[in-house]
Structure formats: C-alpha cells, structure tokens
Structure prediction request, 241 residues.
Amino acid sequence: MAGKSKYKRVLLKISGEALMGELDYGLDPKAVTRIARDVQAVQSMGVQVCLVIGGGNIFRGLAGAAAGMERATADYMGMLATVINSLAMQNALERLDVTTRVQSAIPMATVAEPYIRRRAVRHMEKGRVVIFGAGTGNPFFTTDTAAALRASEMGCDLLLKGTKVDGVYDADPIKVPGAKRLDHLTYLEVLTKDLGVMDHAAISLARENAIPILVFSIYESGAFAKVLSGEGRYTMVSGRG
Prediction:
C-alpha cells in the first residue's frame, strides 16, 4: 500500500496506446479499468487528479499526414479520438464511484463540457477527476503539449507521464539489455540530448512554469500511487541537477 503523497494536485498524461492492452487497435476494457483503479487509488490519498489521454490507439494525426492527408484535418481527427478515450475513461472511473468530468477543447456539448479553466479547478477542489479531451483544440500541437499546458493552467504540483517503461534510460531498454535508468534529469538535459521524454514544446512549457515531470510505467498496476509516495521506479525531470 502506497503512503502519503507530497503533491496536492497532479496531471497524469497517458498515451492512447496504454488503453489498448493486448489489442492491436482500439480500447481494451481491462486496460482501461486497471488505469481507472490506479486513478481511484491516488484520489483516495487526497490528491486532486486531472488527466490528458492521447488518441494514438484510434487515430494519429502525424500518421494521417504522412499518408497524404492534410495535417490540420488529420490532427483534428486525432483530437476527436482523444475524446472517445476520455469518455471511455470517464465511464470506467464512474463505475468505480469516482465522480468525473470530461472537458473538451473542441466544443461538443452533447458529450462533454467545454474547457473552462476556473470550472475545471472547481471540479478538482470538489474531489472530481477532470479529463481534458481534444488536446489544445489546435492542430500542430501534441497531447504532450496539451498536458503541459493544462498542468500549467491548473496550477499542478507535478506532471506525470505514464509510459511503457519505468523511467528514462540512457538507451532503449527494449533493444539494449544493459541500459541504465536515470533517476533525475534537468529540463535542459532532456532538450539538448533530445531524449524524447515529451516533445520540446511540452518540456519548455513545464520548465517555464517550474512543473516537475515524473516518468513512470503506467503498465504496472499500482505504480501511480507508489511514485507519488516517493516509492517505486521513475525518472524525475526538473530544473535542479
């Protein structure tokens, strides 16, 4: 059981691929429920939680553009995919009795609230989990950038990036068996070494607003609560060396 979190309000960014589980495409209900349980565990620690979910399990704008589609149109399609994932996560959380709100940067009043910063903050103050859909609402920006933007707007203490591996390594741990996990990096190290933690716009935004980024494995059940307690394996990115 994880201990007490030193963070009051956090944003969790996960990829759409994390919702695929063992599938090659789309949503695996078991994977969605497992992540929802992790979010529930963190909320039960008294932490205010918001989420940004990618859409790569359904449609990826860059891939569409590479196939000859207009980039802006492909990106808008990707944003709609993130709303589908957000609604799936909302459903999984509410089945666990976690009150949740989805806010979309692209207005679609039938299925989600419009993104309103003050309303989102109020939801979290009332103990609701807020899921931000449709990225920033603009093409040419990734959901990583959307996560850094929303974390800045919400005044989050920490931005977490849930990935397939338990941190940032000095080489690809899947391809290089002896790769070493790095416990800490500075924003500048991530940018200058092009480590691919998040895109450069997201790292720069986090740096400007002094929001540390914690990289951990969202595929490990219970890891979300553990890393907030300072336990488990992760890499911290901040301004301090």
Remarks:
- The chain has a mean pLDDT of 95.
